[in-house]
C-alpha cells in the first residue's frame, strides 16, 4: 500500500510538472527553477529549511528520550537561540548592503555545518550548556541564510515573476523542512538497526568483556540486597539497557553528521550564485 501511494504521488508530481511547463501562464512557474540564480537559491533554501526544522524536532527528541529532559527543559534548550537570531537580523540587513549575498549564504551554510558537527560530539552526559550552545551556533548562521537567499533569488527576474519567486522560495523552506524531518527519522531508524547489529556481536557468553561486565554488575546488585538469581537477571537487563542507550546515541550522531553534510553542500551552491548589483533598489518589494 505504501509503495502504491508513493508511485501515485510520483506520477502526480510528474504530471504537474509537465502540465505547468506546457502552460503559457502557469499557476506555478517551474521554469524559474531552471535559472541558475533562482535554482541555486531554491536549493539553498531547501537545505536551510531541512536543517532548521529537523534540528527543532530531533534535538528535543534526543534530550527527552536519551538524557531524561522534561519537555519544558528541552524547550528551554532551543529558546536562547531565538534571541541570537533576533539580534543578528539587523546586522545581516546592514551586511546585505555591502557584502555579496553569495558570500553571506556561504558563511551561513558553513556555520550551520559547524553547529551540526558540534552535535556529533554528544555523549550520555552532555551538559545543558552543550546542547544550548549547539542551537546558538546555528542561530548565528540562520539570518545569513534567510535574508541573503531572498535577496539573491530576485536578481535577474522580471517584475511579473517576483510573486512566483516569493511563493516558490517559501515552498522551498516548507518542503525542505518536511524533507529534513523525514530524512533524520529515516537515518535514525536505519542507523539504530546498523549499530545494534554490530554491538550485539559482543553480547555473547564467550566474550571476555561481556563475562566480566556481567560478573561485576551481578556483584553490584547483590550488594544492593538482591539474591544471586535476581542479581544475575538484573545484570543482564542492565547490559541490555546500556547497549540500547549506546546504539541510540551513535544513531543520533549519524543524524547530525548527515545534517552537517547538508550544510556543507550549501557552501558551493552559494558560491555558484552570480554577484548582484548592490547599488540597485531591492527587488520584489
Q: Output the CATH homologous superfamily of the domain at 32-198 and 241-271.
A: MFS general substrate transporter like domains
Query: How many helices does DSSP assign?
Result: 9
CATH class of the domain at 32-198 and 241-271: Mainly Alpha
CATH topology of the domain at 32-198 and 241-271: Growth Hormone, Chain: A
Features:
single chain, 285 residues, mainly alpha, Growth Hormone, Chain: A, 9 helices, 78% helix
Describe this structure in words.
- There is one protein chain.
- By secondary structure, this protein is an all-alpha fold.
- It has a domain of 198 residues: MFS general substrate transporter like domains (Growth Hormone, Chain: A).
- Helix content is 78%, strand content 0%.
Give a brief description.
With 285 residues, this protein is mostly helical. The chain has helices at 2-22, 36-67, 71-96, 101-119, 128-141, 143-153, 162-199, 208-223, 228-271.
Amino acid at each position: 500500500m505504501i509503495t502504491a501511494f508513493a508511485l501515485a504521488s510520483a506520477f502526480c508530481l510528474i504530471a504537474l510538472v509537465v502540465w505547468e511547463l506546457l502552460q503559457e501562464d502557469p499557476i506555478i512557474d517551474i521554469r524559474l527553477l531552471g535559472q541558475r540564480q533562482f535554482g541555486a537559491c531554491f536549493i539553498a533554501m531547501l537545505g536551510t529549511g531541512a536543517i532548521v526544522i529537523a534540528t527543532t524536532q530531533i534535538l528535543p527528541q534526543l534530550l527527552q528520550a536519551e538524557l531524561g529532559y522534561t519537555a519544558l527543559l528541552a524547550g528551554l534548550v532551543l529558546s536562547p537561540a531565538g534571541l541570537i537570531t533576533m539580534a543578528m537580523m539587523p546586522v545581516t540587513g546592514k551586511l546585505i548592503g555591502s557584502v555579496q549575498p553569495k558570500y553571506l549564504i556561504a558563511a551561513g551554510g558553513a556555520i550551520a555545518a559547524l553547529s551540526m558537527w558540534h552535535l556529533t560530539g554528544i555523549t550520555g552526559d552532555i551538559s545543558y550548556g552543550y546542547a544550548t550552545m549547539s542551537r546558538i551556533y546555528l542561530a548565528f548562521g540562520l539570518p545569513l541564510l534567510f535574508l541573503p537567499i531572498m535577496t539573491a533569488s530576485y536578481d535577474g527576474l522580471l517584475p511579473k515573476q517576483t510573486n512566483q519567486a516569493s511563493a516558490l522560495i517559501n515552498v522551498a523552506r516548507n518542503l525542505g523542512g518536511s524533507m529534513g524531518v523525514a530524512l533524520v527519522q529515516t537515518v535514525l531508524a536505519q542507523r539504530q538497526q546498523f549499530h545494534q547489529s554490530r554491538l550485539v556481536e559482543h553480547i555473547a557468553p564467550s566474550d571476555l568483556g561481556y563475562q566480566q561486565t556481567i560478573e561485576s554488575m551481578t556483584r553490584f546488585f547483590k550488594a544492593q540486597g538482591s539474591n544471586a538469581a535476581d542479581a544475575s537477571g538484573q545484570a543482564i537487563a542492565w547490559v541490555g539497557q546500556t547497549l540500547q542507550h549506546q546504539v541510540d546515541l551513535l544513531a543520533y550522531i549519524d543524524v547530525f553528521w548527515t545534517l552537517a553534510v547538508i550544510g556543507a553542500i550549501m557552501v558551493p551552491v552559494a558560491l555558484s550564485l552570480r554577484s548582484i548589483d548592490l547599488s540597485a533598489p531591492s527587488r520584489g518589494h
